[in-house]
Amino acid sequence: MTADHPKPLSELRDPVLVAAFEGWNDAGEAATTSIEHLELFWNAEQVREMVPDDYYDFQVNRPTVRLIDGVNRHMEWPTTTFSYCSPPGADHDLLLVRGVEPNFRWRAFVAEIAGIAQAAGVTSAVMLGSLMADTAHTRPVPVTGSAYSSEAAKRYRLTESQYQGPAGITSVLQDRLVTDGIPSVSLWAAVPHYISSSPNPKATLALLRRLEEILDLEIPMDQLPTRVTAWEETVDEMTADDEEMSAYIRQLEVNDDATSTDPDALREIDGEQLAADFERYLRRRDTGSG
User: Which of 34, 82, 173, 176 is deepest in the core (most CB within 10 A)?
Assistant: First the structure.
C-alpha cells in the first residue's frame, strides 16, 4: 500500500523514472547520493511514500528518532519515496525513486513500484547502482550497464556488464519494468573495494555524467567536482606512506589502463587473486597494529 497524496500522478509530463536503493546496490552511497543530488538541485517535490510494514525487518533496518527544534521527537521509518521534478528546458518530468532495499516480499515490492510507474505514465526508466570492484581510485570510474535491447545498449553506449550471480533489488525492478513494457536501462559505477568509507563523490559524479547522456539533459554539478578533488587528495594521503598499499594500487592502475585500451584484457586479470592479495595485506596490517 502507498500513502495518499493530493498530487495526482497523471499531472506529470511523460515522466522518466530514475531509481536507487540503499544497501547491496549502493557501494559508497554513490547511487542514492545521485538521487539526492537531483532532488536538491531540481527542487523535487515528494508525491508518494510506500508503507514499509510489509517489506522491512525493523530489527535489521531500524526506524530512527529525530529531534525537531531540539524538543519534538519524530520517528523516521525505512521506506521508499517518490518525488518529481521538472528539469529546466526539459519537455518531460522525472519521477525519482529513492529507498532502502527491502527484506521481504521483493516481487510485491517491485510490483507496487511498477504500478505507480504505470499510473504516472512513465515512458522509460534508469536504475542507478554502485558496486565494489578491483579498480583504482586514481583512475576514471568505470560505469557499466545493461539495457532492454542490444539496440538500446548501442544507442546509450553502454558497456554491457558480464556479471552473473546474486541480484539486488535494482536488477529485479529493472526486470519487472521491462516485463511491463517500460524500457529500462541500468548504470553501475565501480567503487574501489579498498576504500570502505562513504560517501564516494567520484562515483556519484560518474553516475550523474552518464545519466546526463541518457536523459539528454545538463545536470548541475555545483561543488561536486571540487569534492571529488578533495576526496582523491585525502585518499592519496592515506595510502602514500603505506608501501604495500601503494604497490597494490599501482597494480590496479596497470589493470585499469589495460582494460581501458583493450576490453579483452579483462579476461586475463585474476580479480579473485587481487582480492586475496589485498585480504592478506589487511591481515598483515591488522596483526602489525595489534
Answer: 34
Q: In one letter, which amino acid is 28?
A: G
Measured between alpha carbons, how far is 94 from 78 in angstroms, rounded to an integer? 23
Dihedral over alpha carbons 9, 15, 18, 19 (to 10 degrees): 20
Whether 277 has a pLDDT exceeding 70, the answer reads no
- Cell 516480499 sits at which residue? 105
Predicted pLDDT of residue 7:
57
Question: Which whole-number Å values give the CA distances from 268 to 255, 257, 265, in the listed order?
Answer: 10, 13, 5
Measuring CA to CA, how many Å separate 164 from each of 167, 168, 282?
8, 12, 27
CA distances from 24 to 75, 173, 209 (A): 24, 14, 22
Residue-by-residue DSSP string for 73-102: EEEE----EEEEE--TT-SS-EEEEEEE--
Helix segments in the chain, DSSP class H:
30-41, 106-120, 150-155, 169-179, 201-215, 224-240, 243-261, 271-289
